[in-house]
Amino acid sequence: MPCFFPCFDWNDEAVEFVGGSRQHDEKREEKPMMPPSVDRLPAGNGGLNSRNSFDTKRELVNGFKRDQVNVSEKRQLSGLKLEALNRNKSSGSDFSARTFTFRQLAAATKNFRQECFLGEGGFGSVHKGRLETGEIVAVKQLDRNGLQGNKEFLVEVLMLSLLHHPNLVNMIGYCADGDQRLLVYEYLSLGSLENHLHDLPPDKEPLDWNTRMKIAAGAANGLDYLHNVASPPVIYRDLKSANILLDADFQPKLSDFGLAKLGPTDDKSHVSTRVMGTYGYCAPEYAMTGQLTVKSDVFSFGVVLLELITGRRAFDSTRAHGEQNLILWVKPLFNDRRRLSKLADPRLQGRYPMRGLYQALAVASMCIQEHPAARPSVTDIVTALSYLASHPYDPSTPLTPSLQGGEVENGRRQEAERIKTYLDDQKVAPNERDDSPKDTGTFLNQNFDRERAVAEAKMWGANWRDKRMANVDPGHTNSNS
Q: For residue 160, which of 84, 92, 91 has the smallest C-alpha distance?
């Protein structure tokens, strides 16, 4: 496998590789991150022992290994749990997950029949099920020889028991029965974002521009909760389109928290860990050094945003050599404003707002900056994408040409001229603009001018936010341009 980042040689211990429609997972083993205790884990037969002690070693029954526990991580997990308990006590809610026996979940999924099968990955398989209460759920059955082991199972149970947000998947419960490990989630009828972007069957409509921006804004909100509301912060570490699930209204929910890591606290700038994640989404500094920060998630989010804009996979081995890696493909296009139209998903057929395209590209380009400090905070990303999602594009008055049939090449030439005209028109003073970054096109043409990029995104978002607070529509002029 060719190296994605300079000076980093991928080998058989490196991150999970994704190529084409098949996923080859090759993750590195990491120090265990075991919670000090998890309430309501079943004791006795078919369960886990819950201990209150903070010994540096712990043995968990029923197949769980005896491992060395990182004392610092135990302290952080304890703090996260205490914070969640305090929040839930004040609100009167219950943070604990339900427990199930393997027999119950086998019955719910008709003994895991093929007709209930939803999908699979390196962790195992997912089946649709109906509980005795009539509730429809998704049951994730971990492969005992797969990539998500006991440690990742416990992390996911803990994280999703304590963290609740509209843009995080809701974990209903789990099963730790003998050597069986299963997780029970709310059922999300539309599946993953990946399934709506790639390899669409002929009878499936592609996502329109407004839905894509809605999904991007919602996913950013979920990430913002992990980074800025959870205490200590949680680094997702495996943000990708396959892990963003969609409900019936296309509201996104982040899922699969087995690789999640508690972020740095106090005066620490990062946490150090072995490289785990998915090829094409990993931030370069994390891939090369193992130093993980919240900005590592921001990089991965930028890749997902580019997937939404372009309709391309983060890595696609079926494409020509120079187009297999999404980031390596987009960077030269960012440097040539006449070619920016190539970044829009052809399946949109030109039905997107010109200004919205540039603003979304500006956000994505800042997220994938090589240096973490140059990437925007997820809060700034939420501000920018909330603006785009709150100003839907009206397809009845398209400002970009419709690219259909044999008119594709002609349409691209027309759009290139339209882009040139648009960019020339945007060269105005900041006080003459009220809803987009100053000269976005020029920004995209300057090979990632980092400080200016971040400053412009903040100016754009703050300007829109201030106007919104003053009950003034920031997009009252040329909102579709």
A: 84
How many whole angstroms separate alpha carbon 223 and alpha carbon 240?
12
Phi, psi of 176 (to 5 degrees): -130, 70
What integer is the mean pLDDT of 303-309? 98
To the query of whether residue 238 is one of the catalytic residues in this protein, the response is: yes
Q: What is the pLDDT of residue 397?
A: 62
pLDDT reported for residue 227: 94
Q: How far apart are the first and last CA of the chain?
A: 42
Give pLDDT tens digits for 236-273: 988 999 999 999 999 999 998 878 888 766 555 556 56
pLDDT of residue 266: 56
**Torsions phi, psi for 278 (to 5 deg):** -125, 130
Annotation: binding site for ATP: 140
Q: Which of 177, 238, 297, 439 is catalytic?
A: 238
Which segments are annotated as binding site? 140
Segments forming the whole domain that contains residue 406: 194-469
Q: Are residues 284 and 206 in the same domain?
A: yes
- Say whether both 358 and 384 belong to one domain: yes
**Contact yes or no for 211/219 (Cβ under 8 A):** no
**CATH code (residue 360):** 1.10.510.10
pLDDT: which is higher, 186 or 479: 186
CB-based contacts of 111, cutoff 8 Å, min separation 6: none
